[in-house]
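Example 4.3 (complexes with small molecules)
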Amino acid sequence: MLAQTSKLLVVRWPIYTASVAKKRVEPQQVLPFKPGKNQENAKVFLSDVIVFLKGLPNESVDLIITDPAYSGMNQHLKLGKGRIVGDYKNKGDDGRWFEEFHDTPENYEIFLAEAKRVLKNDSHIFLMFDSYSMLTLGPLVREHFNLKNVIVWDKVNLGMGHYFRRQSEFVLFACKGKRPLSRRDISDVWRIKRIHNAKYPTQKPVELFEAMIASSKKKSDKKFVVCDPFVGSGSSAIAALRQNCQFIGSDISQEAIDCSRERIEHFENYGEDILQPKKATVPELQKPFWEDN
Ligand SMILES: C[S@@+](CC[C@H](N)C(=O)[O-])C[C@H]1O[C@@H](n2cnc3c(N)ncnc32)[C@H](O)[C@@H]1O
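Answer. The structure with S-adenosylmethionine bound is encoded below.
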């Protein structure tokens, strides 16, 4: 299957490293990261989520943290504009793939199955959901993972809304096998301000992803590979770098890859986050437990 996928990767999907524009690298050549050989600690690939995950070896990543593009179901429910993207359900044994992610239950299950395959045994996954996708797709997570908690992301400030104004999103936390959290004093409500006037439309605060990583990674974990296959502007990549992890991610949008690559490079060279220069936390509302790591 990997050989077939790799052929597809070469023919249909241009794949790039974070810092070597135009150089084509297949994910299976990158993982596992080889100390001393790879200078970059974060790599992002222009790829469809399923193609990207299919290109990763079994049990090759320590943690998945991701904020998928949910739109199809919302559109189906007539709850907003959304963006219909692709269709996988006709995928046969010949491994045909379509251009973008369509968040039908069938496609979401393919994504979950691949996510589980690439995760190491006894590991964690954090999956972000808005309230609608949580109702439609959230229950499917149970069929693939041991669902443990629903974390509420309190965005502190009010957003737009359908009837009630939205101030929250959800993060499903689940295990592949068994793995304790890195510590036992973390609440299931995280108060982290949304990003206003973001350069990338769905940009999430880096601290949100740092909270996920720090909840999972133990101080004794030395080479810890974090994966986000819907990387967008690269907030999860910056979080991984701040938490001394290695990172691998993908996005189907060239704009997202350009944006995240530039952000990662700047962070690796100068230690500054060009897309989120200020903290998104308010000390009296949220203890930044991830800063203890
Ligand atoms: C909600 S955004 C992620 C935002 C990100 N967490 C951040 O902080 O910038 C979801 C991303 O999924 C990407 N996407 C949509 N369909 C995809 C697919 N089939 N494969 C990979 N990425 C896809 C979109 O381009 C978008 O950047």
